[in-house]
Task: inverse folding
């Protein structure tokens, strides 16, 4: 069951790579939030209230509802062109992400032993690298924020691999920090949209030597 | 104490943000300064005691906390002068003050934290509050600067988190099970080498964004260029020290194990590239603040070389960090005054500052001699320790390359500063209406900082030497 969810998780990455419209991108991110909830829920050994509340807050509320809604609001408010404007063709993106997936699986299989056999580790690495790749291959600032969120999702899956139990207080701090970061990134993306008509990284070249 | 500090500083941040009356803001800032110094003294008196479960002040944390407290006080003073010369809206002013106070308290907590994840949380808060400070001027370029800083730092902070997770994996396999630096340090030998290497790489790469080293140094340059000078002074001193401390902590764990030599090489590569980048950009830089920022990259490169050499080199590195913080902050404060005399921030349009503001020009002149480690600068002593440790460890080639790069940097720095001070030019853009002339008193704190650098270099108080020696000894 968990494996099925993880496979769906990778499928959402392919959707992001080929998404022509930003809305599809956002839907894929919301979907990742839901899948993360499923994965965490199935991994829970014992259900206690504090863990469950934290989990609900992190995955269902933040990642699946609040952040996609916020992104949607930003796009509407700044009248951002609906296309995701990659530097390279969708076919190439798809090809590169397939390459990332294949290589990571291959490496994990050849370096078998300990954590490398762990499917969570493989999926998290794929997600982190895909996030980084999407970040450098898209023109719009809003897609940078989205790729950052995908990368953070990868980090969340990685924390499952490690399975280290962070104390409650620490967990809460991390959660709050990530949420505020996304919020502040969104606010600045909004400002850039206000000032520079088109929020593309091409406009950000005043500061240089 | 740290719990009280956290609650009180949050209280100050929120009240400054919501009340927006100048009198209230200033009295709260004075309250916070008292609080900051109380914390510093209290933590020094309670060295190595666990507080609030996650915080343990150790020698290096206390040293850096003291530096921060000095610079926080002066930065508050210059922020008062800076904002007094601008007509900002009350909202913009209160946002500035609350972001500055939040930044300083987050840095203080990051210095004292004894848990990798807690340090991470406060580092993330420093990113958020500094990006607000960079945006203070509300111009297009400051927006660009804050966006780049925020984005690059967020990505690098995510990298740090990945590194911390790897560290957790190593600690779990070694049956340590938590992420307290002290536990990891004492049981470092039982950590799995592969995961420790992975953790070191990710954590080091992430912290370079704060410390201003290659590969992630770019964000910091734009930040220091665009932030108001009092905030830029904190960025190029205390905030870089946070990055240094993060690297120091993970390196001190790695140094106990078999990967010590490998980690040393990683540090040396990064340090050498930082020196190279800084030398290359200093020769073609166009604005003053960016030049100061690249000079900070150079000094962090030297500090990293000193740290990787260990022993006397580490002693020199810590001393260098302290002295560099004071000098660079002094230069940034003085640049705030330059900005009020000369319109353009570009080097090509500047000149004749000596006639306009003699006391300030003297600060720049002295600051130049001190930052380039010309005796009687204290930085001469610390650089001497670093160079000698390179010689002692048999890295003669490194010493020669470093010396050549430093020559380029010193000559570029000198050419730019002397042009600003003495160059006579027809079309220098000087503000004609001196509605708020710069008084000599504004330069006095800068002279005090620079004099402190000379004093600390030649006659360091026993307290400081003991603290640095404790830090060096604990390194093993």
Result:
């Amino acid at each position: 069951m968990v494996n099925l969810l993880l496979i769906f998780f990778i499928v959402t990455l392919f959707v992001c790579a080929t998404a022509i419209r930003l809305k599809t991108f956002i839907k894929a991110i919301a979907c990742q939030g839901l899948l993360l909830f499923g994965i965490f829920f199935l991994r829970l050994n014992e259900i206690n209230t504090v863990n469950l509340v934290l989990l609900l807050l992190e995955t269902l509320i933040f990642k699946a509802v609040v952040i996609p809604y916020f992104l949607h609001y930003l796009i509407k408010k700044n009248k951002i062109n609906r296309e995701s404007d990659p530097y390279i063709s969708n076919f190439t993106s798809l090809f590169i992400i397939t390459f990332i997936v294949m290589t990571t699986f291959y490496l994990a299989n050849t370096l078998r032993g300990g954590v490398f056999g762990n499917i969570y580790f493989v999926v998290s690495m794929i997600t982190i690298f895909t996030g980084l790749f999407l970040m450098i291959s898209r023109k719009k600032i809003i897609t940078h924020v989205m790729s950052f969120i995908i990368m953070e999702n990868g980090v969340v899956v990685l924390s499952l691999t490690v399975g280290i139990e962070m104390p409650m207080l620490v967990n809460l701090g991390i959660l709050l920090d990530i949420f505020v970061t996304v919020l502040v990134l969104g606010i600045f993306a909004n400002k850039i949209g206000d000032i520079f008509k088109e929020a593309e990284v091409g406009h950000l070249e005043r500061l240089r030597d | 104490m740290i719990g009280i500090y956290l609650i009180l500083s949050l209280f100050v941040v929120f009240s400054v943000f919501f009340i927006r009356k100048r009198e209230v803001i200033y009295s709260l800032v004075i309250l916070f300064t008292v609080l900051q110094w109380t914390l510093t003294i209290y933590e020094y008196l309670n060295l190595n005691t666990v507080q609030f479960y996650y915080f343990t002040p150790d020698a290096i944390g206390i040293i850096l906390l003291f530096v921060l407290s000095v610079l926080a006080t002066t930065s508050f003073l210059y922020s008062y002068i800076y904002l007094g010369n601008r007509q900002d809206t009350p909202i913009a002013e209160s946002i500035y003050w609350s972001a500055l106070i939040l930044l300083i308290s987050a840095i203080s907590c990051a210095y004292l934290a004894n848990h990798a994840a807690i340090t991470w949380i406060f580092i993330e808060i420093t990113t958020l509050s500094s990006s607000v400070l960079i945006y203070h001027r509300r111009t297009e370029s400051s927006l660009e600067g804050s966006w780049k800083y925020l984005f690059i730092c967020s990505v690098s902070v995510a990298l740090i988190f990945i590194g911390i997770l790897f560290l957790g994996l190593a600690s779990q396999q070694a049956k340590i099970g938590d992420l307290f630096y002290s536990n990891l340090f004492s049981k470092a030998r039982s950590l799995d080498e592969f995961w420790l290497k992975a953790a070191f790489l990710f954590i080091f790469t992430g912290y370079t964004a704060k410390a201003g080293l290659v590969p992630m140094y770019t964000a910091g340059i734009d930040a220091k260029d665009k932030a108001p000078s009092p905030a830029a002074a904190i960025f190029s001193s205390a905030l870089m020290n946070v990055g240094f401390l993060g690297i120091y902590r993970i390196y001190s764990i790695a140094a106990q194990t078999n990967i010590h030599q490998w980690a040393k090489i990683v540090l040396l590569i990064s340090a050498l590239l930082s020196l190279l980048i800084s030398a290359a950009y200093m020769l073609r830089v166009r604005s003053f603040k960016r030049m100061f920022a690249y000079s900070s990259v150079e000094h962090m490169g030297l500090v990293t070389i000193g740290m990787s050499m260990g022993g006397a080199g580490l002693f020199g590195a810590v001393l260098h960090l302290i002295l560099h913080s004071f000098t660079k902050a002094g230069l940034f404060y003085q640049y705030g005054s330059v900005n009020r005399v000369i319109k353009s921030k570009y080097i090509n349009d500047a000149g004749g500052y000596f006639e306009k503001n003699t006391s300030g020009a003297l600060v720049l002149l002295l600051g130049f001699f001190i930052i380039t480690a010309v005796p009687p600068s204290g930085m001469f002593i610390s650089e001497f320790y670093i160079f000698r440790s390179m010689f002692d460890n048999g890295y003669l080639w490194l010493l020669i390359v470093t010396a050549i790069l430093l020559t380029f940097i010193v000559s570029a720095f000198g050419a730019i500063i002397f042009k600003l001070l003495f160059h006579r030019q027809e079309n220098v853009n000087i503000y004609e209406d001196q509605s708020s002339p710069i008084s000599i008193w504004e330069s006095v704190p800068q002279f005090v900082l620079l004099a402190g650098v000379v004093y600390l270099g030649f006659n360091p108080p026993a307290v400081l030497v003991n603290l640095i020696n404790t830090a060096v000894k604990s390194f093993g």
Remarks:
- DSSP finds seven helices and no strands in chain A.
- Residues 128 and 152 of chain A are 7 Å apart (CA to CA).
- The first helix of chain A runs from residue 2 to 18.
